[in-house]
Amino acid sequence: MTALDLAQDYLTRGKLHDLPEGHFIDGKFTPAGNRKMESFDPGRAEIFAEFSLGDEAQMDKAIGAAERAAGHWRQVSPPERCRILNNVARLFRENADRLSVLEVVDSGKTLAEAQGDVQSSARLFEYYAGAADKLDGRSVNLGTAYTAFTVREPVGVTGHIIPWNYPTSTFARGVAPALAAGCSVVAKPAETTPFTALVMAELLSEAGVPDGLVNVVTGLGSDIGAQMARDPRIKQLTFTGSVNTGVSVAQTAAPNVTRLTLELGGKSPLIAFEDADPEKVADGAYWAIFSNSGQICSAGSRLILHKSIRDDVLAILTERALAIRTGHGLTSPDMGAVNSRQHLARIKAHVDAAKARGANLLAGGDVATDLDTGKGWFFQPTILADLAPNDPAVQEEIFGPVLSVQNFETEDEAVSLANGTEFGLIASVYTNDVGRSMRIASAMDCGQVSVNDYWAGGLELPFGGNKKSGYGREKGWEGLDAYTKVKSITISNAS
Ligand code: NAD
Q: Residue 55 belongs to what domain range?
């Protein structure tokens, strides 16, 4: 069945075929057990399935399986790892329709967004398949008395704690480099989006990934997620989620000195100078904040405009925001649902507070529904203009389709506004002045800067934050560093 057939079938019957049951441990699905949690379709605000809540024993079994499998996998030849990871990419593509429709129903995003996520997941496996046989060390010059070189060794069992906004591609961006480097995996998807990781684990197994090498246990973060952070058998923990949970994970993992990658929140700025084209700026800002209903850690949630182009940019952007059609992700809307009832309430509380403070509301500002069914958890595309630097709508991550706008006159002022939050994930600057764009790029305290575009770059570029946006890098060649340990070896050349 094509994605459209699957979508039509779901919209008519309210059910999905072939939902995985139980956890994926040691190469197979375990029995579902009695502890279960309901899974909601955010586009309808209705329950569509149940999934298993993992317990301590199940997580323990998954980590044990991963530990056994890691010993074998590190000895599998790099070309063989490469072949298996390429098989994974092929199977993701062959199953893209099923995975994408499942992701829409589980997360609330649009079908086009989910299809993009599945394709990126396949690309991540291809990219890191190509790295599996290139993890070389280097020869080090210590003079004639020694021969010295380094090797990169796999770290062993790796844990992956996954958020709900990009369930498929966050799984792939951690699991693919871990496997390429010779590590094994235990993954825990978020409570509201448990299903695609289970399907992906099954496809990995079908592609030739040995039993026990990739395990997925679904359940509560406070329960089995914290258990992962505590377990000394996990040698690297890759966490993507909120700052508070990231801090808690780091504290829990500290006694074992577990290696950590923290991909946390953001409040990323798009700065536009007086020489920028207002149409291009408005287009960049539109996609930066309204893609995935604004639930993106690197969303462009702060628009920082030179006063001379403020009115032109906001006129275009407001018109486009007001025209957005929200709807169930399988009905080709412009914007999908937000992920949960609780998250919708959080977004609304932020915007209500901004309105109560007298914010200049140019668009949106309230909850919405699917225009056809009157159901679902949606938030109107919202623009709050002319905010002061210390306004909570400027400082706090709202993680929804809510844009805050600030104005500036000088370059120094723009830099100070852009760097003026506790986050530092990405930034973008629109200007035709090359020198100025490079000065801004250098001044930004964040992990990535784009000039005259917002979502520039792909999985080949390292991605990660500064400040409270976290540490460590995923994607790109640097994405392998978390999963390898460098060892230096010296040989005395003495006779
Ligand atoms: P969250 O922190 O609530 O949950 C993230 C994951 O952590 C979930 O799997 C959850 O079950 C688990 N978890 C919860 N409590 C835990 C605990 N005590 N120990 C171990 N694991 C625990 O975040 P969320 O609401 O799922 O995601 C939204 C946040 O994630 C936003 O702040 C967003 O910016 C951030 N995020 C960052 C990136 C990035 O790459 N920087 C990407 C996506 C999302």
A: 3-264+472-486
